[in-house]
Design goal:
5-stranded mixed beta sheet; 15 strands; 11 helices; 21% strand
């Protein structure tokens, strides 16, 4: 009998220790896929803050590559995975995840932290008291302002090129108010979007002929050729190689050798770090209702040395002092 009592006590101690050491479960639902550089930046920043404090589960909606007709099915799969995992907290990355799932999560008690959201989150659902996060705001006005100085743009035009994904549509609606052109810092700035890869190529090749002095590539991962999605890296490298004018970017993921020259860009890593800090606050006991949405530090100068040399662009001294220079 004494032996059984000792065994019971040892098992009890073991179970209690296991429970005490159990990590909170966090489900990270991505709008896109891990091969997408923006998602890699977000994930890297997010994990750098959380370290080993949580047990992390992941679901990728893959909405950059799949047709819109499959979005609802992917959202259902994500929801079933959520029910299976039964996490302590959920992270929704980018607008499509919010659009497809926030309405369901607002009816639960599970804390939800979003990141990389371009539109007003309340556009996507009637949010409850269990949702907060990190907003993303591309620096379009500052980008054009600095281009004017870098390229001595006293005249001429700038073209912003976009695909026809959710984020691109939000950008056109919020920034351009569905207009095709804005005057920014005295520079005529046109925005144009498409889903057909051949149309994108045509716009790039004709940029100089159409009076543009520079192209700013926004998003380029939802371009198709006969219904087949074209890899975003292929689009970017082709654009860089074939553009008759220098190309710049809103996001750091697009900058580098054989890519965009650079600009005042946003980093997915910064977004991920900001979301990770909110997650830790909640898991450490801070009520989510007391945490307002935030916009993290707004942008940094990032340039590619090889692309600056290729286009013979000299950075002003005050920009060079602040800039991070890539290959």
């Amino acid at each position: 009998m004494k032996r059984y009592c000792i065994l019971f006590v040892l098992v009890f101690i073991f179970v209690c220790a296991a429970v005490a050491q159990a990590k909170p479960k966090v489900l990270y639902i991505e709008s896109y896929h891990i091969g997408y550089k923006w998602d890699q930046e977000l994930s890297r920043g997010f994990k750098s803050v959380l370290k080993d404090e949580v047990e992390l589960f992941n679901f990728q909606l893959d909405t950059k590559r799949l047709p819109v007709s499959e979005y609802s099915e992917r959202a259902d799969l994500a929801w079933r995975y959520y029910l299976d995992v039964n996490p302590d907290l959920v992270v929704l990355s980018d607008d499509n995840a919010m659009k497809l799932l926030s309405g369901r999560f607002s009816k639960t008690d599970t804390p939800v932290v979003y990141m990389g959201i371009n539109d007003n989150p309340r556009i996507y659902s009637r949010l409850g008291n269990n949702i907060t996060g990190v907003l993303e705001r591309p620096l379009y006005k500052r980008t054009v302002k600095y281009l004017k100085e870098l390229l001595n743009l006293d005249d001429g035009k700038v073209l912003i090129l976009l695909d026809e994904g959710t984020t691109s549509e939000v950008f056109k609606e919020v920034v351009f108010k569905d207009r095709k052109s804005l005057l920014i810092s005295g520079i005529k700035t046109d925005v144009w979007s498409c889903s057909d890869y051949s149309e994108w190529q045509k716009a790039v090749k004709n940029a100089r002929k159409n009076g543009y002095k520079a192209i700013i590539v926004g998003l380029y991962h939802r371009l198709f050729d006969d219904g087949v999605n074209i890899d975003g890296e292929k689009v970017l490298s082709w654009t860089s190689e074939n553009s008759p004018v220098p190309i710049f970017a809103f996001w750091e993921m697009s900058v580098g050798r054989g890519r965009a020259v650079g600009g005042m860009v946003l980093s997915g890593e910064v977004q991920g770090q900001a979301a990770g800090k909110i997650v830790l606050q909640i898991l450490h006991g801070k009520p989510i209702g007391t945490l307002n949405p935030i916009i993290p530090t707004q942008g940094a100068f990032v340039f590619s040395r090889s692309e600056l040399d290729r286009w013979k662009i000299l950075l002003p001294r005050y920009i060079k002092r602040q800039a991070r220079i890539l290959e």
